[in-house]
Amino acid sequence: MCGIVGYLGPKNPKDVILTGLKSLEYRGYDSAGVSILHEGKFKRVRAEGKLGNLSAKLDGEAFSGHLGIGHTRWATHGKPSERNAHPHCVGGISLVHNGIIENYMELREELVRDGAVLESETDSELVAHLIEREVRAGGDRAAAGNGAAAGVSSALLAAVLRILPRLHGAYAILVVSEREPDTMVAFKNGPPLILGVGPDAMYVGSDVMALVPYTKKVVYLDDGEVVEVKGRSYRVLDHSGATIQKKLVEVNWTADVASKGGFPHFMVKEIFEQPRAVAQAIQPHVNLQKSSVELSGVGFDVDQVLAGIERVFIVACGSSYYTGLVGEYMIERLAKVPVECDIASEFRYRHPVLPKNSLFISISQSGETADTLAAVRMAKQAGAKILSICNVKNSSIDREADGHLYMNAGTEIGVASTKAFSATLALLNLLSLAVAKAKGVLSAEDEAKYVREVLAAPAQIETVLNLDKFFKQAADKLKSYKGFLYLGRGVHYPIAMEGALKLKELAYMHAEGYAAGEMKHGPLALIDDKMAVVTLVPHDDLYEKTLSNLEEAKARGGQIISIGTGESERLEKISQYYLALPEVGWFTLPLLEVVPVQLLAYHVACSLGHDVDQPRNLAKSVTVE
Ligand code: F6R
Questions:
Q1: Are residues 274 and 173 both part of a single domain?
Q2: CB-ligand 1 contact for 374 (6 Å cutoff)
Q3: From the CA atom positions of the chain, what is the Rg in Å?
C-alpha cells in the first residue's frame, strides 16, 4: 500500500526521501508528495500519478532544512489527486499515513464542528488536525501551568499520545512539526513501520527497502508502539508513555535490487529469474547425497511437530492462495493428512474450528498482507502451530510465526507475483514430502524420486522460458478476444486460476479460472468464437476427460489455447495454439505450467501498452483490509 519515508540528518532530505520513495513506489503509485523544512517552515510539493511526476516537480526545488517526510499513495478514502496526496499539513504539522481510519466519519464531523477547514477527502488529514488541535491545547495547558505527562518533553509526542485512543482502524503514521525541527514521531497499528538508525542520521520507513541504501540497523515497531526520534537518539514508548526496550536488528538486505538487468520490465526479469528462485528456495532443505528432504532453520522441531499434526490449514490471499491450493493437493495426496486451504479474508471471519494439533501454514510473499496477518493471529490464539512461508525476513507475519520457511526468491518488484509464486510451490513440494515422511507414509524410494523431480525443476523451467516467443507472437491475436476461460483439473486447476488472475491484473481483460469438469455446469454458456479457452492438459490419467471438455468448448466456437506435455496430435488438431511443455509428473508440473500463463498475460498486456510493473489500482503489499 502507501509508502512512507522520513529523514532527520545532515544530508539533503529531498535526495534521501526521493531515493526511499523510488524503492517503495511498487507499494502504491497514484500520487506522491514530500514536506521538507525550508527556512523554518515546511515546503510541501505533491503530484498526482507516478513518482516521476513528483521528481520532475522537485527538480529545481531547494530546501535549507534537515527534516522531511515523503509518501507514495494508494488511495483508500478520496480519489487519486494532488489534493488528496500526502503529506497533509495543518498549522505547522506535516503527516503521512498508510492504512484506514475506520471512525473517519465521526472524527470528520467533530473536527468540522470544531471549526477545522478540511482540504482533502482523506481520513489521513483528520489525524493531522487532531494532532494540531492537541498541540495547541497542550500549549494552552502549559501556559496555564498544567504541562504534558511526566517524561514527555516534546509537545508533538504529547499530542500524539493524547489522540491515540481516538484512532480506530489500521495505521502507520509519521508526523513532524515546524516547532520541533529535530523531532519525528511515528506510531503504528497494523501496517509496518520501521526506524532506521544511521551513524549520523535517523530514518523512518514503511519498508526496509527504503532504509537499506543508508543504514542496515533497524528497529521494527510493533502494534501499539510509538517512536520518538530526537536528534540522533530515539525511544520507543507504549500508549501510556512508558518506555519499551527494543532490539536493534542488523538486516542483510542490499540496495541493488532495483535494476531491470537489461529486461524491459521488472516483471519479465522476475519471470526469467524463476529457475534461480526455485533453486534458492529448495537449496537449504535438500540433502543432495541422499536425495532426501531435511527442512532446516525452521525454528521448531519439524519432525516432531509434523509427526503430531492431525490437520493442516493453509491461509493466504491472491496468488499466494493459489499456491496454497496446490499445497493442499500435494499434502493430502502424499501425507494423507486433511488440509483446508482458505482465503485469509474469509477465514478470519468465518468462525473456523481449529482442532488440537493443527498446523497453520501462512503463505505471504510480503509478509505484510493485513488479512493473512489477522488470520495468523487468530490461529495463534486458537493454539495452532504457525508455520510461515514468506519472502521477507522480519516482516510482520514472519515475526508472529513459530516456524519459518523462506522463499529466498530475492526482492520482487513487479506488482504481479511471479518468482515468489514458483519459490513457494517448490517449498510446498518439499513440505508435503516432509509431512509424509514424518507421518511414516513415504518410502525412501519415493522420497528420493520426488526430491530428484524437484531438483530437476530449475533446468526444466529454463527450457520453458525458451518458449517465450510463442505468446509474444500470439499476443496481437489474443488481445482481440473478449474474454478468457482458464481450465485445469487437480493440481493444474489452481494454476488455471493463477493464469486468469495474471491476465486480469495486467491486461485488464475479463478472465476466469475454472475446474475443467465444471464447465458444463454453467460457464459453457459463455463460449462463442470471441472466447479464448486456455487449458492445461498434461498427459496424465485425466487427459481424456479434459480433452472431452475441450471438444465441448470447441463445438461451441471456443478458441482453444492448450498447454500440454510432449507431442499430442489430438490436442494440436483442436487447438488454435498448442504449447508443449516437457513431460514431467504431476508433482512438479505446476512449476512449469505457471511460466507460460505468466508470459501470456505479460505479452498481451505489453501489446495493449499497459504498465505491467505497476498495473492500475493495485499495490504490492496489501496492508489494509
Ligand atoms: C497477484 C499478486 C497478489 C498477491 C496477494 C498476496 O499477482 O501478487 O494476488 O499474491 O496480494 O500477497 P502476499 O503474498 O504478499 O501476501
A1: no
A2: no
A3: 26
- Co-location of 419 and 363 in the same domain: yes
Q: How far apart are CA 601 and CA 484, in angstroms?
A: 11
SS3 sequence of 112-169: HHCCCCCCCCCCHHHHHHHHHHHHHHHHHHHHCCCCCCCCCCCHHHHHHHHHHHHCCE
Strands, E assignment, 500-591: 511-515, 531-537, 559-565, 577-581
397: domain range? 266-607
The rounded Å distance from CA 67 to ligand 1 centre is: 34
Indicate if 596 and 547 belong to the same structural domain.
yes
Of 361 and 30, the one with more pLDDT: 361
- Ligand 1 atom nearest to 321, measured from its CA: 10
Residue 243 shares a structural domain with residue 272:
no
Give tens-digit pLDDT for 508-530. Answer: 999 999 999 998 899 889 999 99
Centre of ligand 1 to C-alpha 308, Å, is: 31
> What is the reported pLDDT for 251?
87
CA-nearest residue, atom 16 of ligand 1? 364
Query: Is 237 inside any structural domain?
Result: yes
Q: Under 8 Å CB-to-CB from 572, ≥6 apart: which residues?
A: 578
Residues 234 and 279 in one domain: no
Q: How far is the CA of 338 from the centre of ligand 1 (A)?
A: 25
Q: Pick the residue whose CA is nearest to atom 7 on ligand 1.
A: 416
Cβ of 274 closer than 6 Å to ligand 1, yes or no, is: no
* 246 and 270 in a common domain: no
CB 198 within 8 A of CB 189: no
Q: Would the pLDDT of 471 be above 60?
A: yes
pTM of structure: 0.84
Contact 428, 419 (CB under 8 A): no
Any bridge partners for residue 512, and if so which? 485
Q: 488 forms bridges with which residues in the sheet?
A: 515
258 falls within a domain: no
Q: How confident is the model at residue 147 (pLDDT cuts 50, 70, 90)?
A: low
Residue 624 CA to ligand 1 center (angstroms) comes to 13
- Assess whether the C-beta atom of 318 lies below 6 angstroms from ligand 1: yes
Q: Write the CA distances from 163 to 121, 126, 127, 130, 240, integer angstroms.
A: 20, 11, 8, 7, 12
Distance from the alpha carbon of residue 344 to the mean position of ligand 1, in angstroms: 12
**Residues involved in catalysis:** 2, 620
* 622 Cβ closer than 6 Å to some ligand 1 atom: yes
d(CA 450, CA 587): 8
Q: Assess whether the C-beta atom of 414 lies below 6 angstroms from ligand 1.
A: no
Cβ(362) – ligand 1 distance below 6 Å: no
